[in-house]
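Q: Here's a chain of 815 amino acids. Please give me its 3D structure as tokens.
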Amino acid sequence: MRKIFLLLFIAITSIAANAQQLLQTDLRQIDVDKLSDDEIIYYYNRMQQAGVSLDQAMQIAASRGMSKDELDKLQKRIQQINSGQKSVTPGTKNSRPDSVTTSRSENQQKFSEQDEKYDKRIFGSDLFRSSSVSFEPNLRIATPANYVLGPDDELSINVYGNSETKYNLKVTPEGSIYIPNAGPVFVSGLTVEDATSKIKAKLAGTIYKAINTGNTKVQVNLGNIRSIRVTIIGEAKKPGSYTVSSLSTVFNALYLCGGPNNNGSYRAIELVRNNKVVSIIDIYSFLLKGSMAGNLRLMDQDVIRIPYYQSRVNIAGEIKRPGIFEINEGDKLLSIFSAAGGFTDSAYRNSVKITRLTDRERSVSDVLSDSFSSYTLRGGDSINIGKVLNRYTNRVKIDGAINRPGEFELSDGLTLKGLIEKADGLRKDAYLIRGLITRLKDNLDVEVVSFDPGAIMAGEQPDILLKKEDDISISSIKDLKDKFTFSVQGEVRKPGLYDFKDSTSIKDLVFAAGGFTEAATAKRIEVARRVTNADVNATSTEIAKIIQLDAEKDLSVSGGDFYLKPFDVVIVRNNPGYYTQRTVIVDGEVLYPGPYIINSNDERLSNIIERAGGFKNTADPSAASLKRLNLMSPQSEIKLRKIEKIAISQNSRDTSSADSLAKEGVRPYDLIGINLEEVLKTPGITNDLILENGDVVFVPKKNQAVKVRGEVLFPTQFAFQENKNMKYYIGKAGGFSSNAVKRKSFVLGTNGNARKVKSFLFIKTYPEIFGGDEIFVPKTPDKKGSGLSTAEIIGISTAVASLASVVIALLNITK
């Protein structure tokens, strides 16, 4: 089926050269459903490039046997593709060979590149680049009476009446048709009307005598339409020879060639027939008036010539359609304004500026509006239409403490009082002592004229006559005061800054701030009031007045109120007897582990263990620990800053101590070693710590293992043995390694306490080990870089030598 479709479109695209091949193509078996979108697009583009319209192609396909259903399917598929839809048929592949796709892409890219070369400013250039305006001839209209027949036209002859028959006869290259049993009839060069008369006479004189009596009638119509060849030369976008329908006009051929190029004329396109110019087409007539005067029907071997443009002008600025326009000799300025759509709403219409090219240089002309219809344009003129000025001829403005501020018309004799009355008068908060008029002087300098609004409105001062662009400002008394505020802090729900309102009491402000919190006390409210008349010469100058008040927490209206002044600061204190619940967690080997609420501010470890039911049999109280949150307090922040300074000041060769200090400062919690056995035996002792919110008390299980870690030969765990010390377990681990720092070895107990080796004279005392302890043997630090550099050694040597010289000199002096 693809081969059949290929034959169809190859025949169509070369219709003039291969007419006989098309006549022999059989399209009765074609199946449109088996054709892909890419195939249809490819051959449809080829068909358009050859100048054959879709209607022509459908007519030819129908004459070659394609069924109506398949024709409808093909038209529908093409319409879907043109609208951007996919029309993939099930069971087919929507693809073509790479070579075909590449060829089509190259052609499309070539045409796109040519489109980009268009100067879009040229008026009319968009016409031939629009896919929605193709000027395709209508092949479904009745045959024009003046249509001239030629070779390849097909005539449909219907005989009806006493005799009935039908002939579909094609005009031969010799110009005649052959009627069976009647003979040849020469029709080439005749109109359809003349050919009909000649055919009737032929039939009446041979086999249908009843035509003469009127009992048999003959109707002659044009069937398939022939294609003709026209040539487009000159400044066309794509000059060349084109095969088009014999019903095509000049506009149809111009569309096929892409119209005039950047140098082509739009106003003097010639149609040459038999070496004579038979029509001159002005495309501007169509663009501006819709007139197709001169758009004649084409004939075979016609030539369309697009000459160079003669003169153009450029129009820019406040015009509806700026661009480049071609002019004829004698065209006036007003005609170009009409072609460009006229002025925009903001255009300055009194005059336009025209820049003209002379033989040697440029010149500028200001053309007034009364000369628009008489000013003759010349090629190369540049017309610029400016905007109206951004100012008013009769405007005054008033703003400020006015009931209706804004812009007003400056009528004859309008005064300041009259303008204020037009603006519905002054507001009650208007400042009546001084107002300002900002005015432009004749030399455009700005001056200020002051006035007394109250006196002007009362008639106590002479009124002021206003001028164009006067700007009147009347202030509000509020604008001339500081913005008064007061604030509330402490135990209120919405502390912050509030706008001052006269006669506001303490209760009013607390109420506006959302009322007291649960922790607030109304018995001690402090008001800090600004001092405005302090004695600066006094030894001790009061900078704020502190007032302590006792208010009611229910904020009732009854009772005496203390009224606030601007900039007062109200502080609501916390109730000293108010506490929120605080929680500690007891975990591990106790009877009732879990969270506990602290019931007094001095509850101790012994109390909380008693509340937790005491220890289980598996508990190891001596190994218990207390984890306490390391909250960031002001003291903690100071400590952290000191640590940072130490870290920065440390020598770059030894930063380990600084790093450890920094980690210590930012640790989220502290692990406190405790001995619950002692605490429970003697409650209240120093080790019986007072609990804090967030504390976690952990009682571990009894651990019968001892860990040895660090620089020993075999780090591991060993079973605990009574009355053995640290040295015993290190020996079991193979002893110290060569990198061990023996004197810094230590033991970390399960309760968080650390114990180290003690030395007295040459005697070392190793700490006793308990179940669960961990023995740590640190590593000798890396000494790389710790020695003196060569430069440092030389410097020290030089200093010592210099010092020795000084000493020797002093000794010599004392002799």
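Q: Can you summarize the key feature?
A: Residues 1-24, 87-116 have pLDDT under 50 and may be disordered.
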